[in-house]
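Shapes recur. Our protein:

. . .
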Amino acid sequence: MTKTQLKAPLLLLLFVLLAPLGRAQVTGSAKPPTISDNSFLIEEAYNQDPGVVQHINTFTRSRNGNWAYSFTQEWPLGSMKHQFSYTISALDFNRKSDIRGIGDVALNYRYQLVNNEKSGLAIAPRISVLLPTGSVRKGLGEGGVGIQANLPVSVPISRKFVTHWNAGATLVPTAKDASDEKAFTKAFNLGQSTIWLAHPRINFLVETVWNSYQSVVARARSTTSYSFVLNPGVRWAYNFKNGLQIVPGISIPFGVGPSKGDRGLLLYLSFEHPFKHTARK
């Protein structure tokens, strides 16, 4: 894009960022809800509060025109200790091979192991079952049922900065390639993000994500690839009196090291709201 082409989107983004500051939507002396559990590529270690559901949309478009969309819905199971969620995705490789469709589906359970209100430390290990709903022949799925584990840890380092740390692994015992050849594949992920709480309703963040993943190349054989991505971005919130919080976000992921040259645009949109009403005192 030229400088002239960039001017209008940048002015629009500036207006949207400043809009929450111009009109508070929670009246009285109560503090408005802050933003949490809304990172883009990193998993924050905060389960949903009782009676509150979250709908998360993420859209990523790479420089070559390929795009990916994911939708996650998170539900508390009775209390904040237990949380169920599911993730569905859609992929489009139109620029390369005119291939598009639904990817694999993830069913997730997460346990709030630690949530220390005094120190702010939070730990919430997750276990997921990956269902092979994506077409292997189109390159949209793994072709076999997988198991994934991830350990998110959230650590505040000051009143204005919070860090989040991830480490996880994915195992697919019977992954397939386009020729239906099977192999045992493994993937590992490490990630870290630092959030600057610039305002209760505006946060700036930088995420770092490293992945190691395997692909089936022949019967009982796989090849390993690596990726390393930096993702600077911003998120902001609109809070409503009925408990609804809307959090849009935007970031610019770019590859370094093994992913050098990869660039893209990530758009984020979350809706969080109560799904049941408690009796008024």
The first helix runs from residue 3 to 22. The chain has two helices and 17 strands.
